[in-house]
Amino acid sequence: MVGQVKIVGILMMVNGILTILIGGLYAAMGSIFLFGMPGGPPPGGGPPPGLFAAIYGVIGGAVILCGLLNAIAGYRVMTFRNRALGIVALFANVFVLFTCYCALTAIAMMVYGLIVLFNSDVARAFEMVSAGATPEEAIGRLTRTYGDARDDYDELSSPRSDWEDRRRRRREDIPSDDEDRRD
To answer: Exposed/middle/buried for 30, CB within 10 Å: 0-12, 13-18, 19+?
Structure first.
């Protein structure tokens, strides 16, 4: 999981920037309601356009702040600093759900990011970096190795081919029924 912290940081920055854009769109829609509609309440006693401008302005401002928080926290998480800020920023994505535009990405980012940041090895990596280690040292020290030098995607050392070779050798060692009958 420690190797995925940088990925989480990058995704948080991308999600933050997109959230800032949606927040700006909401704030712009609020100003369109205020300045684009004729003054006064509509006929029939409906709410004044200023109320819609205020609602959209508040939602847009909150979403912009959440996006800014995600972008800043994403950079800090990517450099293994301020894990708590990253967790707070991910939980702040709840406010983005009100827009419905970024709801799916906000939920996905919250789930993935919180799973990674709540991992105990990740917490130790953040502590190591705060104690003076580099992020690469923390990743190298806390990433689990499998005891061999092969790469996970190395085609030459396939577990399937090893299994087939062992199975074939066992078949050769066990005599068949025909050989037993001849004796």
So the answer is: buried
